[in-house]
Amino acid sequence: MTEFILEETCLFHNLQSLEESLDIIESIVETAEFITDSEVCALSLVEDFYNLTIGGIGIGDLLYANQSNGEVRDIILRLDIAITKAEHFVKASHTDEHYGLDRILAKGDGCLISSNSFPRERWDEERMFNVFCIGEVRQAVRNIFLVQKKQEKDLNIYKSIMFDEIYFHCELSFKDLSLDYNTHISTLIKHLSYLNDHALVEFMSEKQDHEIIRTASALYGVDISAESPNTRRNAGAMNERKIKIGGEDICCEWHTKILPTKGRIHFFAGHNRSDAIAAIAGTKIILGICCEHLST
What CATH number does the domain containing 104 carry? Predict the structure, then answer.
């Protein structure tokens, strides 16, 4: 499980200026809810949270000071529910605030839910990741996956949150790619991140194929390609690129190239899909085949 620590001091200061910070608090709560609903992430916060005091003011008192405001009451109720699902850690004895930050610093890596930024002398940007909204969780999980050197078996467990805009028709397998996991895991995550975050917009645009290819390489460092005219004329080779979803064929001729001669991720990014396929894969990028190299 990837731990996301709720930074209590950040929440406290936003509660102190509630009217000005309501959008910030709601974003923090939405992020906490998203994490507690995930099967691979865990929300964590300091023990005895409701009885904490900062500067002589209790967090619990601030939380329940505006119960007459219906909008505030609803957000606080949602926060309560998220907190009941959280794990708790023992607070450090040398401080009376920033327990969440102290936990990250003690571990040397991790993910923090906070709207604050922290001094560079305390915060290692290559190993510590601050999230403030749901959209940032995905990238934080990718980063911490690499920082904590998670194993190959974890890849298919975490892929649903790291790459939530990809429909995986096949499992991710370095054996199938004929690649060494430790050597190429960061490159694979870069390729899948491109497919998840950018490819659909690119392929739904009016760009020509060569423009899509150039953008993927120049902006995202990912080598992608469609099949050559010769391969397209080879019926046997094109059949290798077909998969079945909902009982219907779909051709995954576009592919990313992890290495020039091997490591192919074949995908379908088109919007011209049948109702049967859309009912299963939605509008997501379809990752169809992971292989060393198909016939040409």
Answer: 3.40.50
What's the pTM? 0.91
Q: 262 with 177: CB under 8 angstroms? A: yes
Tell which residue, 45, 44, 28, 36, has the closest CA to residue 134.
28
Measured CA to CA, the distance from residue 239 to residue 249 in angstroms comes to 10
Q: Are 230 and 216 in contact (CB under 8 A)?
A: no
Identify residue 79 by its one-letter amino acid code: L
The stretches of 195-228 forming alpha helices (DSSP H) are: 200-204, 209-220
Q: How many domains does the chain have?
A: 2
Tokens 């019926």 belong to residue: 235
Burial (Cβ within 10 Å: 0-12, 13-18, ≥19) of residue 54: middle
Q: What contacts 118, CB < 8 A, 6 or more positions away?
A: 101, 130
Instruction: Find the mean pLDDT for residues 80-84.
Output: 92
Do residues 122 and 213 share a domain? no
Q: What would the two tokens of residue 228 be? A: 């050559």
Give me the pLDDT at residue 243, please. Answer: 97
Q: What is the pLDDT of residues 94-125, one digit of tens each?
A: 667 789 999 999 999 999 999 887 766 778 99
Do the Cβ atoms of 115 and 132 come closer than 8 Å? yes
pLDDT at 65 over 70: yes
